[in-house]
Design goal:
Largest sheet: none
Strand content: under 5%
Structural class: mainly alpha
Helix content: 55-70%
Number of helices: 8
Number of domains: 1
């Protein structure tokens, strides 16, 4: 158990730093998730004019309520909202990597539960790779490539 404590300690410190980083970008997160409820004066200067234009557009307000955030920012007019689109891309990249990190940590905690305390590091690495990969095996192709494959009658 002590061996894992020394391995986990740097991870805990990294997570604490990560959450401090989130506090530092809290205003950006609010702007990203709710662009129609943010006072443009509170937004970064390079976004203020585009934010005012966005907030005055009833069509975009409606789309924001109807679409997932990713799709909403994707369909914004590139010519009119170039700065906001760039800002959204940066924010989306933060959440994508955060999600993957949280998913991996969660899988590791479940896998290394008290039931599987004897799991080796290499096996844990293999389990994490399988659980966090979104590839689907082509089972029919794999089975057909075997010489003894016989489909059911």
């Amino acid at each position: 158990m002590r061996r894992y404590a020394t391995d986990v300690s740097p991870l805990v410190e990294e997570f604490q730093q990560h959450f401090r980083d989130f506090a530092a970008i809290e205003k950006d997160i609010i702007l990203f998730s709710s662009p129609f409820s943010v006072d443009p004066d509170d937004a970064p200067e390079h976004l203020q004019l585009e934010l005012i234009e966005l907030q005055c557009d009833a069509e975009y307000r409606s789309r924001h309520q109807q679409l997932p955030l990713v799709n909403f920012y994707r369909q914004l007019d590139e010519g009119r909202f170039q700065e906001i689109r760039t800002f959204a891309k940066k924010m989306l990249s933060l959440f994508g990597s955060t999600y993957l990190c949280e998913k991996t940590f969660s899988v590791m905690n479940i896998t290394k539960s008290c039931v599987r305390t004897r799991l080796s590091d290499s096996h844990l690495r293999d389990v994490l790779r399988i659980k966090t990969t979104v590839l689907e095996p082509e089972l029919d192709y794999i089975l057909q490539s075997r010489s003894q494959y016989h489909p059911s009658h």
